[in-house]
Batch of 4 targets.
Target 1
Amino acid sequence: MTKQFSTVVLRSISTLVIVLVLSFFITRIAYRNPAAMLAPRNATQESIDAVARALRLDEPWYLQLWYYLFRGPDIQGAPMGLMHWPPALGFSFRKQAPVTDLILAKAPVTLSLALGALVIWMVIAVISGVVAARWQGRLIDHVLAFFAYVGLSVPTFLSGILISYFFFFQFSNHGISWFPSSGYVPLSEDPLQWARHLALPWATLAIAEIGIFQRMVRASMLDVLGHDYIRTARAKGVPERRIYFSHALKSALNPILTLGGLELATIMGGAIVTETIFGLDGVGRMAIAAALEADFPVVIGTTIFAASAFIITTLAVDLVAQWRDPANRN
């Protein structure tokens, strides 16, 4: 167990280093002349050169990477690099603020969006997947498969627009103001308003995920239901509901949890379309705005944040899977 944990930690650190180097190198290729993009409009060549010198953009990319890691910008008179503690992710050229502070300000929005949607789609997918497996080939199985394929086929931008149109616009026309069209209220400020503002974004993300998870739960359940211990439980007279929800589902959960962790990590990297449709000021919107404005410290910072979220989530999923394995517990 200790050896496996050490291997996972080393793999995670190696992944972060590779992501950092690649993102740093790619931003240097994507932005051929970032000083010109950052300089004021109609700036002279001397002004552009001055911007490049001030931000060290005229140095080779590997020297800029070294500076990013071990020196960083001077904040409150002290150097702040990624290798300092606490780690700093650079300084935004456009926002004139530390990238770490910008990400930490946006992260609660993206985290609330991702976790809420995960709970909704997992609960619905698990229940409907078990029901589909229980009545395999029956009408309810075909109906659930139909809705799963529809959910998978509809793009997120379309489902988001439709949900906003019906549950905000049409409801508002009839005097029903249950769901706001945009905005975010922190959970600590007002839990009810927090849920109201996120209900439609949660539904948008959940619709896109329920289909694949529902089909996966169904397939895993059907695989487990063919095992000998399930037949033994039936021979002993164990009720069907207990066989499905206690015996079979427990064994079928590992691949579902793994996929759920991967999807959660992907959304943590930025559910850009959903955040844009519902006006959520999250990490995804900030990353896109930074990419369009050539604010590459923010682009690199959000990339490292997304990679860290992915690594932490997959590490947690691996540990849960190890803990759920009876061989490891014994």
Note: The mean pLDDT is 84.
Target 2
Amino acid sequence: MGPVLIVDDEFGIVEAVRDLLSDEGYRTATALNGRDALERMRQERPSMILLDYMMPVLNGPGVLESMQKDPALRDVPVVMMSASPPDFWQHLPCAGFLPKPFDIEQLLDVVRRMIGPPPLTH
């Protein structure tokens, strides 16, 4: 199973989500903008992406547009994270949405629905 790629320009959010998912047993990768996210996706295909809507360099919609053009990435499930009103992101080709602020259970529920429970590690 590929990592859960967490993409957000707010380092505190990236760090908190990464730590939570890692504690639950998921492998994670992170990026602080859309361009870095695309590079990481091409290095290792993620199992899903938690993607911020508004970021510098390349925003969430720009990442989705690039992914749609890439056959290797177009079917990776993406959950858009945003504090913006639904009018901004409802039309985007995402597998799910996570309105900010979200709580731990909302986050874990979305991840489990998208990729299932974390792999067993022994």
Note: The helical segments are 11-24, 34-43, 60-69, 86-89, 104-115.
Target 3
Amino acid sequence: MNVSAENVSALPAASERQRRLFFIGMSSPGALATSVLVLFALGVVLFLGFRTNDGSLLGGAFTLDNFKAALTDPLYATVILRSLAIAAFVTLATVITAYPVAYYLAFHAGKHRGLLLFIVTLPFWTSYLLRVFAWKVVLAYNGVLNSALLMTGITSEPILAFLNTPAAVVVTLAHAYAAFAILPIYVALENVPRSLIEAAEDLGARPISIFRRIILPISMPGVMAAALVVFVPTVGDYVTPALVGGPNSTMIGSMIQAQFGKANDWPFGAALSVIVMVVILAVVMAARFADKRFGSRT
């Protein structure tokens, strides 16, 4: 919407009618896509959540039983909390590992910055499923990691704990979303005024103080954006837990997929989806508050 407004303002010679038509023409595709692909889909999910499951496409009568069952069954509360915990660990691991990479790109990469940014985005050239399967090959009983440990004599037999564990899910998701965290942090670090750093150095500030009092606070909006970009999709991920996680790694996305698949109970799956969206919205609002706390101007 802002881009369209800027484009409109860039046409000073056009008449008011032409400007209005130009604005409508530029805004219509985005508004149509948002209405059809996002709002309509969310509306259907919300509608189905309040319907009984009679086997029809849109359910039977209106009811609150789906939400009551989802909110009162300890199983779903446990799985939702587990999903939040795994997503939180993935977010923490991704941001902590992404920050040094983004820092190097912003301050020390020099003429190689473009090449390194290209390498950072290189995993997106392959399918998400292929990246998950690659980690399955690495962490399997006869996989790359166990073979390396056996060859070097560190262990005498393969270790079973690498695969089908929550840790395997965290490692795989952290790698899958690494670039999503690196790029927003890099952009935030690029906007750190170099004059502030030079002034601090001239006044005798130590590097750790410059980082703690100048670079880190200014880059926090980028860190918050990276955390959101990683946290939101990982809460509902079901592919990675299904491939590299075990029974203790089942996340809410897997249970929603099961309701829409094998169970053929779309209304209950929709109710679970709505509950997860509300939980994620609460987390996003908390992150937004923290973002404001650290001085974001957005």
Note: The mean pLDDT is 86.
Target 4
Amino acid sequence: MNIRKSKDLFMKNSIFGVAGFNIIIVFLIFFFVLTNSVKFFTDFPIGDFFLGREWISLSDKYGLLPLFMGSFWVTLVALGISVPLSLITAIYIAEYANHKTRVRLKVLIETMAALPSVVLGYIGLYVLSNPIKEFFGLNTGLTALTGGILLAFMSIPTMVSISDDSIRALDRSYREASLALGANKLETIIKIILPAAFPGIFAGIMLGFGRIIGETMTVLMVTGNAPILDAGILSPVRTLTATIAAEMGEVVQGSTHYYSLFAVALVLFAISFTTNTIADHFIHRSRKIMGK
């Protein structure tokens, strides 16, 4: 065996080893969360957990619905803002912007992605919450709307980057055939480009959703942390991630409350796994359309 083949074999085995190690780490994390969640469900009815309307740890009430609704409202606001903005931005970058403008916008978007979540939390706490409080006449500006706006800001870079790549990766024949048949540029984008790039765009939206549902620090700082089932967009809420972050540091290890937080983590794990699986499916579908 020559040196070149030896190097290729070494690299192949090294990459396989690193990939296998990462899979083992993820499996161990899942196993750790699952085993601790099972301990919770041996002491607490599973139906009361998933259908419970109150989360009051001091009274041993661990209902998931208030936390789930908190995550729902924040995610709804974030997706309602980020999806249209990301789509418009990606279309502009891919179809209208010249090279110089495209490079500048990409740098700006990548900078947005690099901002620490705690910095955005401070911006929401001291800059965004008071205008929302005064504009809607609320008692507090720490609401699902405040958290949703900041999470939209955080998810836009992921959505824009993947959508832009999907649109630009399409073969030029899509555009040329449409224009040759008499369609203008806007008609070509709406009726040809967007449907053809939809799998990639949808994958970007799903990954952005995963970013939103998994964010912890920002929502902990700006959503008010009130586990209320009947809350709305303009009410303080508490999300699944914020509950784990706020209570794990003070809970008695080995108690029912301690294990209940692992049950919440298991729900988050299931949501993230489902989201990434759907996104991965559409990314593969997009690559098939592009012929890669």
Note: Residues 78 and 152 are 4 Å apart (CA to CA).
